[in-house]
Amino acid sequence: MKLLACDDDPSVGHMLRATLESEGWEVSFTTLGSECIALMDSVSPDVVVLDRVMPGLGGMEVAQRIRSDGYRGPILLFSAFTGPDLENDARTLNVVPVPKVDVEELLRILEDLRGAGSAPLARG
Q1: Side-chain half-sphere CA neighbours of 70 within 13 A
Q2: What is the mean pLDDT of the chain?
Q3: Which is the most buried residue in 9, 48, 98, 103, by most CB within 10 A?
């Protein structure tokens, strides 16, 4: 399974690589939303993990662009801030918000996706 992650904090990329590569995931990471969009074709990810708040393009903007470019796979939005507005926006783009403080939840979702062959997520 291939995962493309984008977060302006490089430690997130290190954490995902350290945790998931030993489980057989192929992890690509960038700190820029624009670079994440540019990597979509070459990486062909099964799952995309985006930070909600980043300089330049934030996670929702990246999700919107990659959805409009035809990506239909699961997108997880790693966010320190959750609430009704985020839930509504996420539902519109079929994006699953994951509290940034809950790394275990993110890892559980990724393992569920691997077991399901990365079928698109439907929550809520």
Answers
A1: 3
A2: 86
A3: 48
Q: What is the pTM of this model?
A: 0.83
Type of residue numbered 64: Q
DSSP codes of every residue in 97-110: EEETT-HHHHHHHH
Residue type, 2: K
Number of residues in the chain: 124
Domain ranges, ordered by start, for the chain = 2-115
Q: What are phi and psi of 7, to 5 degrees?
A: -155, 140
Least confident of 20-29, 38-47, 54-63, 101-110: 101-110
Strand 26-30 vs strand 95-99: parallel, antiparallel, or unpaired? unpaired
Question: Which superfamily does 2-115 belong to?
Answer: Response regulator (3.40.50.2300)
Whether residue 44 has pLDDT greater than 70: yes
Q: For residue 30, which phi and psi values (nearest 5 degrees)?
A: -140, 160
